[in-house]
Amino acid sequence: MKQRLATVLKFLAFFSVGIFIFWLVYKDQDIDRIAGVLKHGVSYGWIWLSLLIGLLSHLSRTLRWNLMIEPLGHKPRTTNTFLAVMVGYLMNLALPRMGEISRCGVLARYEKIPFTKLIGTVVVERLIDMLMLLLLLGITIVAQFGQMIRFLQNNPEINGKLHAVIYSPVLIGGILLVAILLWFSRSKIRETSIFRKLAAIIDQFSEGFRTIRTLKNKGAFVFHSVFIWLMYYVMLYVVFFAFGFTSHLGLIAGLTTFVLGSFGMVAPVQGGIGAWHFMVIEALALYGVDKSDGKVFALVAHGTTTAMLIVMGLISLLVLPFINQREDAVDV
């Protein structure tokens, strides 16, 4: 009961933050204008193409995850892995980072793979995704250094927070203090039952991490790692052509918008709601797009993607038991 209450409270807290940011972004927007643009100013063919590209990225993530699971001695069915991935995206809309746990739980249930080993592979996935995002950020900074400086100048609160985090004496001192305490208490800590249980769990996590070194097809792994993020980028960029006010923007403008928007998705709110909108609107403003137009763009791009994830996630939840029940019957 307490765990359920804590989960509900977390959901409400994160959701409230996202809604509040969303409200701040759109509180002064003309609803009639948005409705007019949605009715007459959007080429929805590009939106459908964007969603198709998004599905390709999810399929690629599925195939990459299967590559990482194989060294663990398991070969899950691609259908189950894909459906698990889509359930994960759906759960992320309910609670930030819940998706990683949910998709591991789904695959562990239907493919009989140890849950902790799957978590290890997902942690590796997330580290690689973060490296890819940082790489894209580096490319963006080099290609659009002036625009990135303008972004920080236009948003002094973000610049101030970055500076405060990096140079925070409390943070640095706290890290040093914890490290010193752990070092001098290491002998006693190792003797505790909690440490032994944790060590056993970490060992299973480590097996998930080690899959990266024992992959049978490292070339395919690298390909999918690049392809996933390329499709994420293209998925957003083609939406530019759905609006007259963004159709003239080039590939670099699309990359800048994508990278800044991706950092909005990292924010601890469901589906990046509010935070993603803010980052994308500010990014488009760097290239002369009026903020009122940027708000429409963000609303459509985020709304359609979220709707697709909800639909695919719900379908996956419904299909998973049916498919596995039928396949189990065939095996018998």
Largest beta-sheet details: none
Q: How many independent structural domains?
A: 1
Shape: globular
The percent range for helix content is: over 70%
Report the order of strands and helices. HHHHHHHHHHHHHHH
- Rg calc: 22 Å
Q: Ranges with pLDDT <50 over ≥5 residues?
A: none
Briefly note the structural class of the backbone: mainly alpha
Mean of all residue-level pLDDT scores: 78
Strand-residue proportion: under 5%
> Between the first and last Cα atoms, what is the distance in angstroms?
39 Å
Q: Figure out the total of helices.
A: 15
Number of strands: 0
Explain what you see.
By secondary structure, the protein is mainly alpha-helical. It has one domain (37-156, 205-331). Helix content is 81%, strand content 0%. It has helices at residues 2-26, 31-40, 44-69, 78-94, 98-111, 115-143, 145-154, 156-166, 169-184, 186-190, 193-210, 218-237, 251-266, 275-285, 291-331. Helix 6 crosses helix 11, helix 6 crosses helix 13 and helix 14 crosses helix 15. The two termini are 39 Å apart. The model has no long low-confidence stretch (mean pLDDT 78).
Break the fold down into its secondary structure elements and pairings.
Elements: H1 2-26, H2 31-40, H3 44-69, H4 78-94, H5 98-111, H6 115-143, H7 145-154, H8 156-166, H9 169-184, H10 186-190, H11 193-210, H12 218-237, H13 251-266, H14 275-285, H15 291-331
Key features of this structure:
mainly alpha, 15 helices
Short structural description:
The chain contains 15 helices and no strands. It has helices at 2-26, 31-40, 44-69, 78-94, 98-111, 115-143, 145-154, 156-166, 169-184, 186-190, 193-210, 218-237, 251-266, 275-285, 291-331.
